[in-house]
Amino acid sequence: MKNKIIAYQGIQGAYSHLAYKNVFPDSLAIACDTFQDALQLVENGKADLAMIPIENSSAGRVEEIYRLIPKMSLHILDEHFEAVNHCLVALKGASIEDIKYVSSHPQALAQCHKKLREHKFEVIAKFDTAGAAQELKELNDKQHAAVASNLAAQLYDLEILDNDFGDYKGNTTRFLILSKENIIPTYDKNIPYITSLVFNVRNIPSFLYKALGGFATNGINLIKLESYSMTGCMDASQFHVDIDAHIDENRLKLALEELRFFADEVKLLGVFKRDPYREIMNSFSTH
Question: How far apart, in whole angstroms, are the C-alpha atoms of residue 42 and residue 251?
């Protein structure tokens, strides 16, 4: 996608910056302070796409995104899995023995929890991994370090004290690519797809079971099911579901008919091709 404008949260050197460069190397980008800012740029037509992290293989979901997306008039066009390699970075000349404080985004800190506890570092949450790295230059204090990418270390002229600081091998973040346009790919039986949607059900015994029954009877696999209490409401819950099927398949049409009978406000978020990386992840889980 040449000449597209991509909005992402963070500054240069953030993992979202790395992901956007890998997927859209020939596009322009706008760095935003918050996820909501990035999404609103697309809503307002000031950017073509937003590239937003939604979950991580070791730290779990980015809950803020699950709550933001259903409220916005955007659609999921694609997904992308980005390998995440956390580095412990500090001022030039600092050693790991000098470090007392480590700052980063809460997700990055969670993905390095074991190492941080092992070294007994005091953690400081920041809005962004690369922003935490940039701040080190301003602090000019060798007691402070950050968890960030090796690109952030290069950009801000920092020392990499540990280039494999994450707790788990194969740490991966899933990104969603969102657009104001709802572009649904033409169904091809030889291509695996995901249909993503949200729906509400009342907190009444067996209502969720009945709402999801159509997926089981039609042989449809649910890849993900996330639940939330709705804001200001205790008698209903909202669910985000990723379905292993294309919305134009007859079996999914039948399942959605049953879902709509029991659920309120079924909203389609997008239909997109499964990222091939999912097959690699499945091969890891079977060994």
Answer: 33
Q: Residue 127 CB: number of other CB atoms within 10 A?
A: 16
The CATH number given to 87-162 is: 3.40.190.10
Which of 121, 165, 175, 272 does the annotation list as catalytic? 175
Among 261, 247, 241, 250, smallest CA distance to 69 is for: 241
Judge whether 175 counts as a catalytic residue.
Answer: yes
pTM for the whole structure = 0.86
Residue 199 annotated as catalytic: no
Give the CB-side neighbour count of residue 175, counting CA atoms within 13 A. Answer: 25
Q: Quote the pLDDT of residue 230.
A: 61
196/243 Cα distance (integer angstroms): 6
Superfamily of domain 193-285: ACT domain (3.30.70.260)
Mean pLDDT (10-residue bins), the chain, 287 residues: 84 89 91 93 96 87 84 93 94 96 94 95 93 92 96 94 90 94 96 95 82 95 85 71 97 95 91 89 53
Nearest to 213 by CA among 169, 257, 270, 183: 257
The domain defined by 5-83+172-179 folds into: D-Maltodextrin-Binding Protein; domain 2 (3.40.190)
Which entry of 173, 195, 215, 272 is annotated as an active-site residue?
Answer: 173
Q: Where are the domains of the chain?
A: 5-83+172-179, 87-162, 193-285
